[in-house]
Write a structure and sequence with these properties.
CATH superfamily: NAD(P)-binding Rossmann-like Domain
Shape: globular
Oligomer: single chain
Radius of gyration: 19 Å
Strand content: 15-25%
CATH class: Alpha Beta
Number of helices: 10
Structural class: alpha/beta
CATH architecture: 3-Layer(aba) Sandwich
Number of strands: 14
């Protein structure tokens, strides 16, 4: 198949593209003008894929990418994602996450109406919920940050377009993923990088409960949905069902790394852009029943297994 991936240089997009190449698909990636460093995640597959220079916020740029790639499937993972930074500067999030999705939807409708769209939303669209129970897809969206609002708007736009414009779109709402290398700005990777160097670790919201998913399980979900005709038009939580507090995750990693340094609970790292405490949902765990039942996706890694693999990846890539 011809496959177009937006966000192909990103954390999950690069791994998804690698899998698609391995299974023999013709892979196209929409990228803004990028330095070699920004292409580092996909350097092994660059000779085997087609990169199209463009910008999600420009409609004719996106339309041209769809025309050039003539895709059977578009995986839309391109987004601006640092949640905390969105509080101080929300405008780029609206442009890239919402406007970019609208541009992609209408490029597909105009140029390639039989194309499937599989788009990344986020668990953040649920925000505050009335009870500490796993959240189903039917829950009211209650986004708690400018980032989450931009993603919720894009999420809803795709669902509207499925009905009004006969888009063949599927929406994925994944929980926090881990398994990055080279990056330490996300909670799990922050802990790994600090603990391996023996440096003090700050756990800003120790009692907040989250679900953490290993990257390869995340990619599996996209691959499984792409193979499922039943998933067309569907909305799916992607979550392994292993809720843990931030403090518990830090203690797990401390044991796995042999960390002997200091854990500081209730404080963020000095200079770290803080998410307003009143806006941080204390419980964000998703119900994965629908994707398991309708698509057959199940996580292959327990939390301990995933963390062990993440540590091996980090050590190998940064050695």
């Amino acid at each position: 198949m011809n496959v177009l991936v937006t966000g192909i240089t990103g954390f999950i997009g690069s791994r998804l593209a690698t899998r698609l190449v391995e299974q023999g698909d013709e892979v196209y990636g929409l990228v803004r003008h990028s330095s070699e460093r920004e292409l580092k995640r996909i350097e092994q597959i660059v000779p085997k894929i087609h990169l199209i220079e463009g910008d999600l916020v420009r409609f004719h740029s996106v339309l041209s990418a769809v025309e050039t790639s003539d895709p059977n499937i578009v995986f839309h993972l391109g987004a601006l994602t640092p949640v905390r930074l969105s509080f101080d500067d929300p405008y780029p999030y609206i442009g890239i996450n919402f406007d970019g999705t609208v541009n992609l939807v209408h490029s597909i409708v105009k140029q390639s109406p039989n194309t499937r769209l599989i788009a990344a939303s986020t668990a953040e669209v649920y925000g505050w919920q009335p009870s500490d129970r796993a959240i189903p897809e039917s829950a009211l969206l209650n986004p708690a940050s400018p980032y989450a609002v931009s993603k919720a708007a894009a999420d809803q736009y795709i669902q509207m377009a499925n009905r009004i414009y006969h888009l063949r779109g599927s929406v994925m709402r994944p929980i926090n993923s881990y398994g990055r290398v080279w990056e330490s700005g996300f909670y799990t990777e922050y802990l790994i990088s600090k603990m391996l160097r023996g440096e003090t670790c700050y756990i800003g919201a120790p009692d907040s409960i989250r679900d953490y998913m290993f990257a390869e399980d995340h990619v599996d979900a996209y691959m499984d949905v792409a193979k499922s005709e039943r998933a067309i038009g569907g909305v799916y939580n992607v979550s392994p069902g292993n809720p843990v507090t931030n403090a518990e995750l830090a203690k797990k990693l401390s044991g796995l790394t042999g960390f002997k340094g200091k854990l500081v609970f209730g404080s963020y790292p000095p200079g770290y852009p803080q998410r307003p405490q009143s806006q941080d949902p204390p419980y964000l765990v998703l119900d994965n029943t629908r994707i398991s039942r309708e698509v057959g996706w199940h996580p292959r890694h327990s939390l301990d297994e995933g963390l062990e693999q993440a540590l091996r990846l980090w050590n190998r890539k940064t050695a």
